[in-house]
Amino acid sequence: MEQPMSQAIENRAGPLAMWTSSYYSWVLRKSFINPHIGKVRNMLQKVRQQWKDLVEAQLASYAKEVVGEEIASTLVPLAVQTPPKPELGDIAFPLFAYAKALKVAPPKIAADLKTRIEGLADRPAGELLLAGPYLNVKADIAALAADLSAEIHEKGDAFGSNTNRAGTKVMIEFSCPNTNKPLHLGHMRNDSLGESVSAILKANGADVRKVNLVNNRGVHICKSMLAYQKFGNGETPESSGIKGDHLVGKYYVRFAQWEKEDPTATEQAQAMLKKWEEGDPEVLALWNTMNTWTLDGLAESYRKMGVSFDAYYYESNTYKLGKDEVLKGLEKGVFYREADGSVWIDLAEIKLDRKVLLRKDGTSLYMTQDLGTAVARHNDWPFDSLIYVVASEQNYHFKVLFYVLEKLGYSWAKNLHHLSYGMVNLPDGKMKSREGTVVDADDLVDQLTSLAADEIRAKERESEVGDVDATAHAIALAALNYYLLQVSPTKDMVFNPAESISFNGNTGPYLQYMGARISSMLRKYAEMETGYASVPFDPALLDLEDERELIKSLAAYPEAVAKAGAEYDPSIITAYLYDLSRLFSRWYHDNQILKAGTPALVKARVELSAMVLQVLRNAFALVGIPYLPTM
RNA sequence: GCGCUCGUAGCUCAGCUGGAUAGAGCGCCGGACUUCGAAUCCGUAGGUCGCAGGUUCGAAUCCUGCCGGGCGCACCA
Q1: What is the dihedral of CA A293, A299, A300, A304, to 10 degrees?
Q2: Which ipTM score applies to this complex?
Q3: I need a surface site. Which of A22, A74, A387, A580 has the fewest CB within 10 A?
């Protein structure tokens, strides 16, 4: 049966489109959350906790008074929430849940608690507000701002980082390209996720090792080799001026054409694979040459995309691995052998059928290789956990892989995680190589870079920006990474080319622009007459509603980092960034900073702006947005 | 068929360990640049949160069923 190119064997970035996560990965994700999370509290959480403890204690004694006996232990724990609108306060305690037990209407409970707490001599700074069935607290933001300022100055680039995963070694596998064609949009989501999650885990204290598993062998690789042999006429990247990966990709496509004319094409490719496995010098030489072309091309693409790895693994070295593991399992009795010699595992325990682990001729399969590769990697670098960034169509594969490793008795098997992500579709549907709708990674970056350069020229900012190309490239990366990371990983997403090239609205360049504006303003401040150095920072002056919101948002950044780390989800950071930027943008638009009324006010607002810039930069680093002082 | 997964405004997405009128961006319409960068800001219109039940004082959020989309169910990778 004819196999369309789009369904040909694909690498781990998935076919041209990729999919979505499963209950399984959810379970793993949950179980994988580091137990230390929760011990580290940021300032905002501290304030919330203080108030919660206080309100909870008062609620208990109030309940005792009303009911006439001790019932605190029967009450549901107090919920802490954030009011939907700033004017309602900063912390909210809904009291619905206590109406039944106390036989008192929630608004009255709220009012009574307010009176009690206000009667206390010793209570945290802040103001209590009544809002129907809610008891709300308007926190002491000035104190928060003072703490925040001190901490951001002290920690700088490290502000927001935590030690949740300190002392743990995390290996993360991503990208995993085939060496028969260039990178496309599907890889880009994979690469963005891999890079971002790596940065996020580092910010959570982990020792991270990024690895790439290059799929450089197999019948699909032989296809491009064969087509090149037949139609290549000795063409090289140098002679043709075509980037190596694109040149090899050209022959992969050429094979597909030829295959339609010559029904023996696939057979010939298989024969070539056999020769490769036998070590045929001529085949190996061609394989080496073409692989080098592709790998050189891919290296350039990675550089262009800001992607890098600490180690490369090649399937040509690993494809035979795993056989020993399967035989070990057979001895242990966790696997069984069929009459024909093939080895299987029974998956009834995880409510699946059964899976073959070794062919009847004793050779390895995809699963076998992955078993061996995991063990080999743990020997290379004894990780505490290993994350596979692989499209969700392989959910089943990883579910089985992790189960098998656990059955083999590896203690680290329970810390394997499949970071499963959904496919990237185009507005018209899936990308299909046959229909030429594949979005090429190099083209996309180049196109975005050139559009950004046009924009810089249109705004006549060339001289201020200096290196237009470098700046345009940084803008392109921001646009791409942000676009790809703002969607929750598990979901399929639509890549709209027209939208992706927009630099306005909820985009990476918008965020960069906020950074550039603050940076520009701070440069002006530095040039202003001296004298501000002696003006003390008075956080009490930051009492506008927008300022309170900004301060709370800044204080919430460490929480976002911890959550993104616990859930392997960069979209938490992108959402945070947009929220912070929008707050800043509005405040900046409505208020003067450098020309504020008094030196003390200038100082306070400059300080707030500087804090925003620092946090923006820290968050940028986690989601692949280059910081630009000017753009 | 079985399994997994997704279904929120015209489009792209947030919100989902249950809570106060469901939020953004794009697009539409209308405002704001002699003033710290307008790649900006503000406003109007636009929603039976796929449908139906259930649990609950309270459901976009949890449970069940159904409908619709995607993916997977190879001795391929």
Answers
A1: 160
A2: 0.96
A3: A74
A361-381 pLDDT tens trace: 988 999 999 999 999 999 999
Report the protein residue whose CA lies nearest the C1' of nucleotide B6. A491
With a 7 Å cutoff on the CB, does A80 touch strand B?
Answer: no
> Which nucleotides of strand B are protein-proximal, with an atom < 7 A from a CB?
3-7, 11-15, 19-21, 23-27, 35-42, 57-58, 69-77
A630 touches strand B (CB under 7 A): yes
Cβ atoms of A628 and A475 closer than 8 Å: yes
Q: What is the pLDDT of residues A287-297, one digit of tens each?
A: 999 999 999 99
Axis crossing angle, helix A468-485 with helix A441-458, rounded to the nearest 10: 120
Q: What is the pLDDT of residues A78-89, one digit of tens each?
A: 999 999 988 899
Report the nucleotide nearest the CA of residue A630, measured to C1': B37
Distance A246 CA to B14 C1' (A): 37
Q: Closest Cα to residue A406, out of A325, A506, A304, A340?
A: A325
Place of tokens 């707050």: A583
Query: Between β-strands A385-391 and A354-358, what pairing exists: parallel, antiparallel or unpaired?
Result: unpaired
Report yes or no on whether pTM surpasses 0.90.
yes
Question: What are A422-450's pLDDT values in tens digits?
Answer: 999 998 888 877 777 889 999 999 999 99
The rounded Cα A396 to chain-centroid distance in angstroms is: 22
